[in-house]
Amino acid sequence: MTGLAKILGVSTSTVSRALKDHHSIGEETREKIKKTAINLGYIPNSVASNLRRRKTNHIGVIVPRIDRYFHSSSISGIEEVANEAGYYVSIFQTKDSYIKEVESVAILMSNKADGIIACLALETSDIDHYKQLANTHIPLVLFDRVCSDLESNKVLINDYDAAFKACEHLAKIGCKKIAHIAGNLNSSIFKARLEGYKAALIKNNLTINEDLIFYGNILSEEEGHLFANELLSMDTRPDGIFCANDITAVSVIQTARERKFSVPKDIAVVGFSNTPISKIIQPSLTTIEDHAFEMGQASARLLIKQIEDNDKNIVSETIIIRNELIIRESTVPLE
Amino acid sequence: MTGLAKILGVSTSTVSRALKDHHSIGEETREKIKKTAINLGYIPNSVASNLRRRKTNHIGVIVPRIDRYFHSSSISGIEEVANEAGYYVSIFQTKDSYIKEVESVAILMSNKADGIIACLALETSDIDHYKQLANTHIPLVLFDRVCSDLESNKVLINDYDAAFKACEHLAKIGCKKIAHIAGNLNSSIFKARLEGYKAALIKNNLTINEDLIFYGNILSEEEGHLFANELLSMDTRPDGIFCANDITAVSVIQTARERKFSVPKDIAVVGFSNTPISKIIQPSLTTIEDHAFEMGQASARLLIKQIEDNDKNIVSETIIIRNELIIRESTVPLE
DNA sequence: AATTAACACACAAACGTTTGCGTAATTATA
DNA sequence: TATAATTACGCAAACGTTTGTGTGTTAATT
What gap in Å lies between CA A266 and CA A260, rounded to an integer? Predict the structure, then answer.
């Protein structure tokens, strides 16, 4: 811009205002400036602008693992509405590590992100790094895996309800011994899913048997196979299982198949998240649709509202996204 | 920092140097500065630093669709090595739109990204926006979907070879009429895969029949089903098919199943990318492993090398990542 | 015709760092 | 003891914008 100004023999302030169509610049000079800006291939320096304006139009996203479908689709949702609103998105992957999460927040603070959207790492229980954000006035939206100790904006589904629905469905189709593959209970969602599971069992007069609850961590394929083999070897085999994610549910189905058990006849299976695999596996998987993409969109909208809202009275807001049970062959045999 | 300096009664330059362990600052003042920096919760302003240093430690990534497994895993690979090297990553999703790609590049130039890693949108054939990068001295790495008209760093697999292997495998197991679901031929990879397909047919004395080549675009599930229904309705049904991605290959398997055709007996199927679904579908899918994560890693390493390399003699470099055919049930029946 | 308003632009400070250079005070060298 | 070298810091410019204020010129108002 300094260059442009020199060439045109005007001041930088005039150039700056002309390029933004400020009314105080005459029609003629404005056009002249714009034209030569294009001709000379002028590229505005956003980092200088960001420094001066104290605004970066940049929002940071912190997720456990980008390559899990739930997260990549929520990022996709975030990216869509952020771009629409003139923000760009940078991604930080924690791999569920607390330290990486802390580092990511630090980088985003230092880089003056206008706001942060985060899904908590499994390891995270101390959340001082997010509390620190409050001092810097950087708005925060937690999504999916949130934290009750932290007053912040939240976007989530009702995991308790979803799990309840899932397990009640199992009970309704006649399961008497319903197992559960639980996730890391440090995480809000997995705790809630476990509670929902228990509540549904009680409601349906089924006893809660600790032997039927498998406590996983990252809920990988491997964990799924491990648990599946365990539970299929039990003396009194469960006849239904609610898995805290689709990945482990798929592993259960595969293991059952390998070991010549029938799904759903021998054991009915329910997953969580309605990832693409769930439609494709045979038998297709009953699961909870949690609308990851929409969660991303809602998170971004909420964050941007907070960024741009001048009404500083609103401290925080919580949005619950709908969820629904999608019944497929893994709980209901084909006719 | 200005604040810190005022409180401590030293100059900002001293603070700046102290925090970076510059030798010219005395042990004592250095420690004092560091300590109060921590106590006061001082957060360095990277955007000011970026402006002054003319370096952002920020690399931009442009991909078609984050929620496709190939891309999310390559992003994951990029993110891993970038973070390791002290860079952070921002993501731009083109949804295969040319305009969005151009906009993304513009934003990244304006934001003074230290480098860009991109996978071309399907729509993209004009690549002036990347050529413009050369003037700004922002290094570029294209990965997977590259462009021969553009002199730049590239990371890709040999799609021709991979397709050739895939189709030769089909021929070897006895397929006589091999069909192909091709992607958008505007894209380097899909053109190469088509060529590889044709070459393998010729090598194996099979005639190339245009009726057996289905020209897709984004290779979605829907496209897959459409083509599958078409080809399964042909008078002389093909007995093998090479699909340019896993998504359509899975659709073909599903459609065949619905229509009571047997895979691989009636028709053998090969996909591309070894996405998670390919292991899980029944019959499991023979496919090409293209090492998306490693491509991401290699791209980031190459880019960072270019960013940090002072040897300006190297203009560009091309890295070919290995690929292998993974043979599964969709081409070889279980015993 | 005198006063006010509107217009079109320039000046200069500010955003918060980094960095080349200058300069005292101390220590080493001849 | 005079000179040089070293140490430890400050000064001020620079990075490229944005923006409040100042100013000269022209147009509108009474």
Answer: 10
This prediction has a pTM of: 0.94
Other beta carbons within 10 angstroms of residue A159's beta carbon come to 25
Q: What is the pLDDT of residue B306?
A: 93
pLDDT digits (tens, 9 = 90+) for A119-158: 999 999 999 999 988 888 899 999 999 998 888 999 999 9
CATH number of B2-44: 1.10.260
Cα–Cα separations (whole angstroms), residue B250 to B135, B273, B285, B289: 44, 12, 8, 15
CATH architecture assigned to B159-290:
3-Layer(aba) Sandwich (3.40)
Q: Give the gap in angstroms from C-alpha A206 to the nearest C-alpha of chain B.
A: 33
Among candidate residues A135, A83, A86, the one with its CA nearest the CA of residue A109: A135
Distance, CA of B24 to C1' of D3, in Å? 23
Q: Is the pLDDT of residue B2 over 80?
A: no
Q: Where are the domains of chain A?
A: 2-44, 56-157+292-321, 159-290
Please tell me if the domain spanning B2-44 has the same topology as the one spanning B56-156+292-321.
no
Residues 6+ apart with CB under 8 A from B159: B188, B189, B190, B192, B193, B196
Using a CB-CB distance cutoff of 8 angstroms, which residues of chain B are in contact with residue A92? 79, 83, 88
Question: Would you call A51 and B56 a contact, using CB atoms and an 8 Å cutoff?
Answer: no
Q: b/e per residue, A85-107, with b = 16+ CB within 10 A?
A: bebbbbbbbbbbbbebbbebbeb
One-letter-per-residue 3-state SS of A149-187: CCCCEEEEECHHHHHHHHHHHHHHCCCCCEEEEECCCCC
B251 is near strand D: CB distance < 7 Å: no
Q: In chain A, which residues touch B (CB < 8 A)?
A: 41, 43-48, 50-51, 56, 58, 65-67, 69, 72-73, 75-76, 79-80, 83, 88-93, 106-107, 109-112, 132, 135-136, 250, 254, 276-277, 280-282, 293
For residue range A77-96, list pLDDT tens digits in order: 999 999 999 999 999 999 99
| CATH number, domain A56-157+292-321 | 3.40.50.2300
CA of A167, closest CA in chain B: separation in Å? 25
Classified by CATH at the fold level, domain B56-156+292-321 comes out as: Rossmann fold (3.40.50)
Q: Which residues contact A301 (CB under 8 A, 6 or more apart)?
A: A81
Q: Which of A52, A58, A89, A91 to mutate to test the interface with B (most CBs of B within 10 A)?
A: A91
State residue B4's pLDDT score.
87
Q: What is the Cα B135 distance to its own chain's centre?
A: 24
